[in-house]
Amino acid sequence: MLNPADSAFVARLADSLPAGTLREAEPRYLEEPRGRWQGQAGAVALPRSTAEVAEIVRQCHAARVGVLPYGGGTGLVGGQIMSDGPAPIIVSLERMAGLRAIYPAENVAVVEAGMILATAQDEAAKLGRIFPLSLASEGTARIGGVLSTNAGGVNVLRYGNARDLCLGIEAVLPDGSIFNGLKRLRKDNTGYDLRHLLIGAEGTLGIITAAALRLYPAPASTATALLAVPDPAAALALLELAEGRAAGMISAFELINRAGPEFLAEHMPEVPLPLSPLPDWMVLVELALPAGFEAAEPVMAGILEAAMEAGLVADGVIAASQAQRAGLWRVRESIPLANRKVGAVSSHDISLPLSEVPAFIPRADAALAALGDFRINCFGHLGDGNLHYNVFPAAGRTKADYLPLREAVKALVHDTVHDMGGSVSAEHGLGRLKVGDLERYGDPAKLAAMRAIKAALDPHGIMNPGAVLR
Amino acid sequence: MLNPADSAFVARLADSLPAGTLREAEPRYLEEPRGRWQGQAGAVALPRSTAEVAEIVRQCHAARVGVLPYGGGTGLVGGQIMSDGPAPIIVSLERMAGLRAIYPAENVAVVEAGMILATAQDEAAKLGRIFPLSLASEGTARIGGVLSTNAGGVNVLRYGNARDLCLGIEAVLPDGSIFNGLKRLRKDNTGYDLRHLLIGAEGTLGIITAAALRLYPAPASTATALLAVPDPAAALALLELAEGRAAGMISAFELINRAGPEFLAEHMPEVPLPLSPLPDWMVLVELALPAGFEAAEPVMAGILEAAMEAGLVADGVIAASQAQRAGLWRVRESIPLANRKVGAVSSHDISLPLSEVPAFIPRADAALAALGDFRINCFGHLGDGNLHYNVFPAAGRTKADYLPLREAVKALVHDTVHDMGGSVSAEHGLGRLKVGDLERYGDPAKLAAMRAIKAALDPHGIMNPGAVLR
Fold it and tell me: Per the database record, which ranges form the FAD-binding PCMH-type domain (chains A, B) (predicted)?
């Protein structure tokens, strides 16, 4: 079992590190965005170098003290908060936020793990490149965290998840050794891929301290459209049509359910809705083309025309200016904010095989209707089969009224997803929230292998104790 | 230690499986393309189902008998041949070659691991899709093998390596348990990514029995050009220029050194060379566009014009017909055949950070010139930083003359690659050939973690003994 990071241990650790590396954790390290968990008072370490991270982990390993890796603190599943158990050392990489090197001809940036995601985007932009990972918390989330959770966001359809945007990592392993895997190679078949093992491991197998990130040339022209579709099946047929015409150029394909704009109208009336009457289902599509092509707008117009002919799109608007484009994105990006104002009974970050999406939605809707009176806002990254299927109180009621139903709602949605070959954590990870889901839905051979790997690499279980695996 | 698969064990195993599952291994299972290794006489198992694979592995695990997974037998590093040690059971998946399901709307095909790569390509083509993995041995290599070695080939620049083309796998783990990870999901963050651990593990952590493969819409128009460049630095500048104009549309960017066409002229004069006089360096570039765009040829012409203006390209030809396109590819694809006729002193499948390529080539050339009189054919997938830097005898001499220098040549090339941040196995894997290279060049923390993972998942070391790790 683990020992708590008591004052004697913290003092000893502090003595072996530069002054100011350890301090009492301020409240911000003990809170998380959804307010479900509260961390324990204790010490936070703020190392300035990989060697210091290694020293901290080495001492925690020797003393069997837990290590809680901390990035931007934006995780939604409690992976960054330990509310019980022996007090850990929180290790925040916020002082390791530097750009180590950037190679425009290679489309690679080597950054420290504490760099904020938006900063990485900015560093790329300075050289006419993009780092395409983009998500709501990009102004706060840090590279180490987005890699450890294999974050997704709106550009996955074209550029992949966080793991696909990383060529190499440097990491401190649970015994304090340093894995020097900061390769800038597109191809490297020399043994097991530790990078892919640590990415998505949510800090339970080590702390990522730096990464070689893939950049891409900045697109030269963009076309953005909001299209009304009769139903999710038509949205998927539209995706297939759009991919046939512009595969590799579609950077976003986002589903919006009428509940989203309705919530906006209720709680954020300052966000204008571009389609009237409000359709039941909409898709936000974006194309982004490089400089060797004519403007993106005619390609989008061709997609729209073909889709209308095929009866897949009933109404739609193609942004004619940057301001209109921003307006369309504002609708999509405001939906999670409106959701928070309404207050969800239960939120679900799920994915499904693409062709199962049209059957899933009515099946889950019907099962929920049998359970109670809900409003459902189902939206998200349809191009990736990733839906945020979020369940809200009926109009005029509050989430407090539904507290007794919350676990049943979650189980019903997750059971349905699992039954249809989907995942109960598409892009947020397991953290501490979904440890039970992994046990319930995970393949037994996979679980056994995960436990064997965890025991082999972290025999004392010091790394992010209680996350992912119990 | 392992026990040999003696006649008593083979008889017992045969009894528990359908008649005809086990038989004496024919010579084809005991040979490999480069003729360096010769397998031991013994038994081959030819299971028809995942359950039968599991039963074989379970019994081998219990009896501590080695298991040698066998795909198409095309590996170049001896991963499929055990020439010494206790005789293993060879497990060939050739009877498990079926298409389980195909989902055109999802761009996914679920195939058994024994399917030949070209068959997977054909199955996709029937539905207007492509499975973009493409390599010289595609008519013989099988899906399980290309995944286990994370194969590369000519389309990696656009579509990624084998691992990037696989959404999920089913595999038998070393204890005989079945990992049901055959997901068709673009996003799934539920624990450690076993798929990425088994892909590239070269059969040392289990046997992949089926895979969910990513398909893509077939391109509607293609443009192929062979362009003469002054040197590799210009080739890289051309790549940057081409990506600025057509990022995401470049499906091949292959470097050709004049030695390649010279070898063709000597040994395969039936292959015509399209550029005269023969340049020192050439690049084969291919663009492939979806249906929503005008033809690819004007985009290629724009790249060529800009590159000529910038002094990056001195001469070039854009294929004006499918026959011309095939002629350009024939040059590229015949080079390995000509190489074999010349007979290499030492061949190297290396990768480098892209911007190190121009410095690497003259540095390695100069170091080799100090060692002896060689001809060097340096060609390959420049867009991926992956070169086949192959060293040949001087004109009029044979590889036998150079046998005493072979190890020194290899060490010199690999030392130089390692020193410049590259990899000594870009796309072929380690097999048995490069086990020593991993020990010499591999990161010590990575090696320790690999050994710990291997011991945790395969405590008796039955899976592909002696490959990857000693």
Answer: 37-218
How far apart, in Å, are the Cα atoms of A455 and each of A174, B76, B456? Answer: 11, 34, 8
- Local structure of B449: helix, strand or coil: helix
Write down which residue in A188, A217, A246 finishes a domain. A217
Chain B: nearest CA to A149, how far in angstroms? Answer: 7
All residues of chain B having their beta carbon less than 8 Å from the beta carbon of residue A245 are 290-293
Q: Are residues A228 and A213 in the same domain?
A: no
Tell me how many domains chain A contains: 4
CATH number for the domain including A48? Answer: 3.30.43.10
Q: What is the DSSP secondary structure assignment for residue A168, as one 8-state letter? A: E
| A449 φ/ψ angles, rounded to the nearest 5 degrees | -65, -40
Give the C-alpha separation, B111 to B169, whole Å.
10
The answer to the question of residue A65 being in a domain is yes
Residues of B within 8 A of A449 (CB-CB) are: 173, 179, 192, 194, 457
Domain span at residue A130 reads 99-217
Beta bridge partners of B3: B65
Task: Please name every residue paired with B253 in a beta bridge, in sequence order, or none if there are none.
Answer: B285
Interchain contact, B248 vs A158, CB within 8 Å: yes
Q: How far apart are CA A146 and CA A138, in angstroms?
A: 9
Is A83 a domain residue? yes
Instruction: Determine the angle formed by the axes of helices B444-457 and A444-457, rounding to 10 degrees.
Output: 140
Q: Report the chain A residue with the minimal C-alpha distance to residue B173.
A: A445
> Could you tell me the mean pLDDT of each successive run of 10 residues in chain B, 470 residues long?
97 98 97 93 97 98 98 96 97 98 97 98 97 96 98 94 98 98 97 98 98 97 97 97 95 96 96 92 97 92 97 95 96 94 95 98 97 96 96 94 96 98 96 97 98 98 97
Tokens 């709602």 locate to A409
The 10 Å CB-count burial string (b at 16+, else e) for B429-442 is: bbbbbbbebbeebb
Dist. CA A18–CA A27, nearest whole Å: 23
DSSP structure string for A342-390: H--SB--EEE--GGGHHHHHHHHHHHHHHH--EEEEEEEEGGGTEEEEE
Residue the block writes with tokens 């390649």: B260
Which DSSP string do the residues of B87-153 spell out, in sequence order?
PPEEEE-TT---EEEEEGGGTEEEEETTSBHHHHHHHHHTTTEE---B-TTTTT-BHHHHHHTT--B
Q: Which of A185, A294, A457 sits opposite B423 (nearest CB)?
A: A185
What is the DSSP code string of B305-325?
HHHHHTTS-SEEEE--SHHHH
Strands in B146-300 per DSSP E: 166-172, 178-181, 207-214, 216-217, 221-229, 250-257, 281-289
B-chain residues within 8 Å CB-CB of A353?
103, 106, 108, 183-185
Same domain flag for A231 and A132: no
Query: The complex's ipTM?
Result: 0.97
- Do B200 and B249 share a domain, yes or no? no
Residue A452 lies in a domain: no
Cβ pair A190:B442 closer than 8 A: yes
Asked if the Cβ–Cβ distance from A353 to B437 is below 8 Å, we say no
How many CB pairs below 8 Å do chains A and B form together? 308
Q: Which of B217, B251, B268 is the last residue of a domain?
A: B217
Interatomic CA distance for residues B228 and B235, integer angstroms: 9
* Phi, psi for residue B235 in degrees, rounded to 5: -60, -40
Interface test with A, best of B50, B107, B173, B189 (most A CBs within 10 A): B189
- B149 and B73 in contact (C-beta within 8 Å)? no
Backbone angles phi, psi at B306, to 5 degrees: -65, -40
Does the bond joining B277 to the residue before it have cis omega, within 30 degrees of 0?
yes
Residues on chain A touching B248 (C-beta within 8 angstroms): 158, 216, 248-249, 290
Nearest residue to B351 via CA among A165, A192, A189, A194: A189
